[in-house]
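Hi, here's the filled form for the chain we discussed.

Project: internal
Contact: R.S.
Residues: 375
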Amino acid sequence: MSRVKPHLIAVTMGDPNGVGPELVIKAWQRRKSENLPPFFYIADPIIIQEVDRIQNETTPFKVIQKPQDTYNVFDQALPLLSPFKLSEKPQIGVSTTIHAPAVIQSLKIATQYALNKDIDAIVTAPLNKKNVSSSKNFFQGQTEFFAQEIHRLSGQKYDPIMMLASDTFRCVLITTHLPLKDVSAHLSQETIIRTILITIADLQKYFCISSARLAICGLNPHAGEEGLLGDEEKLIINPAINTIRNDMKHAHTQLQMDALYNAPPSLHCLLEKVKMLDFSLSNALPSDSIFHAESRDMYDCFVAMYHDQALIPIKMANFYNAVNITLGLPIIRTSPDHGTAYSIAGHQKASPSSMIAAIKQAGQICMNTKKNNDT
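And the returned structure, exactly as it came back:
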C-alpha cells in the first residue's frame, strides 16, 4: 500500500527586503525539529543568495519546476519555485516599491495553485501594503487580495474573514484595514451576521469545534453604557446577534435565510451547515475586560469590531506565536502575524516562531479539513 503524501504548502515571496526570506530559511532549517509539513518558496533564488551573503551562511536550495517536486527535495534542500525574476537585486532592510510586481505575481501564482488543488495551503510572507499599492492599484491587504483574485479566476465572490489565532485564544475581525475614524460607518448588521456565520462554520471545519462559543466585543467604551457612550451596540451589534439567535435557532428555510442575509452563492452551504451546529453568542461586551485569562477559557473565539481591538490583546498574550488565518475562502491561507521589520532584516535577530506557527497551523487545518470531509 502506498503511503499517503503529507499536505503540501506554498510560501509566497513577501517583501524580499524584509525579514520574510530569512524566516523561510530558518523555518526550513528547523523542519525536522519542528516536524513541519513540506513547503516550497515562490521566489527568485537571488533572494536566498543575498540573505546568505549578508549573514555569511550557505542555505542549500533547489529550483523546482512544479509544486509536487517539493516531496523529493524538501529533506535535503529548500525548494524554490521561481517563475519570475526580480528586476533588481534585493536590498535587505530597505523599503522600496521596486519589487511590488513580483510580490503580487507570487500571490497570484499561489492562488492559482490552490484553486487547481496543486497545493493544500498557502502561507504568506510579510509584505509592505504601501509599497505594493504604489505599484499599480490600491492594495488593502493580503486577506482582501485573495478574495479579489479568486473572484477574478473563478467568477465566485467570497467574504474573507481575518482571524488571529494563538495557543490561548482566537479573534475574528468585523472590519480589517480601515482608519479608526471610518470603523463605525462600516459596521452593519449584515456584515456582523455574515462574519459570525462564517466564523461558526469555519471553527467546525478548520478546528473541529462543533459547539462554538463566541464572545462579541462592543465598539464603544463599556459597550456603549446603554447608549450613553455610543449607540452602535443598541442599534447594530446586539440586533445582529439577536437575528442570528432567533432565525438560526428556528431553522428558517433556505429561501428565507437567503432573503434575510442576501447571501452570495459561497454562503449557501454555510447557512445550511450552521443550522446543524450548536453555538452560543454573547451580547456585546466591554472590550477592556473581555480578553482576560478566565474569559479566554470560556469562549472559543472573540469577535472584534476593528483591527487593533483584536490585535493588541492577542499580540500582548502571544507576540511570537500568533497566526493570521483567512476564513470564508475556498482555499486555506495562513501567515505570520507581523510585518516586514526592515530594521532587523538581515541581522539574524528575527524570530521564526510566528512563521513556523503559520506553517504548522496550515498543516493542521489541512488535516482537520480532510477529517471533516471524510466524515
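Let me know if anything looks off before we file it.
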